[in-house]
Amino acid sequence: MARNGMCFSMVLFLLCFASAGIGNTVQLVQGQKTWCIAKPSTDESTLLGNLNYACSQVDCSVLQRGKPCFNPDNLISHASLAMNLYYESKGRNAWNCNFKNSALVVLTDPSYGGCVFA
Fold first, then answer.
1. CB under 8 Å to 67, separation ≥6 — which residues?
2. What is the dihedral of CA 80, 75, 24, 7, to 10 degrees?
3. What keywords were assigned to this record (predicted)?
């Protein structure tokens, strides 16, 4: 039950962050850790395109069945991890987390269980 509450809180935070940040630029403190994730409102076609693009540029083997980030086995989770791997590999610049305006830079670590977002 606590896990459901945590997931709901994360989704609520992301929705608030997304709506408050439309058209705005987030100013980060130098050296502050950030992650890139898919916007919750992104359609499946865009998520699949993002997943395929990111994985054509970086190693997404952690998403394979039996690996730490396979579960939950859903498109938004897999796309978010792939997008973050790409974002990290390119130096964590805001422009590397755009994905045609279907991504968010977040300050909260989205890692879960054994799946660590770098």
1. 61
2. -80
3. Signal
What are phi and psi for residue 105, nearest 5 degrees? -90, 125
Instruction: Render pLDDT for 23-73 as a digit per residue (tens, 0 to 9).
Output: 444 455 667 899 999 999 999 999 999 999 999 999 999 999 999 999 999
DSSP SS3 for 25:
coil
Helix, strand, coil share (%) of the chain residues, nearest 5: 45, 10, 45
Of 98, 106, 107, 86, give the one whose Cα is nearest residue 42.
Answer: 98
Look up the pTM and report it.
0.75
| Cβ neighbours of residue 99 closer than 8 Å, sequence gap 6 or more | 38, 46, 50, 53, 83
**Distance (Å, rounded) from C-alpha 50 to C-alpha 29?**
27
Structure token digits, residue 21: 């940040």
* Residues recorded for the chain: 118
Helix axes 44-57, 75-89, angle to 10 degrees: 40
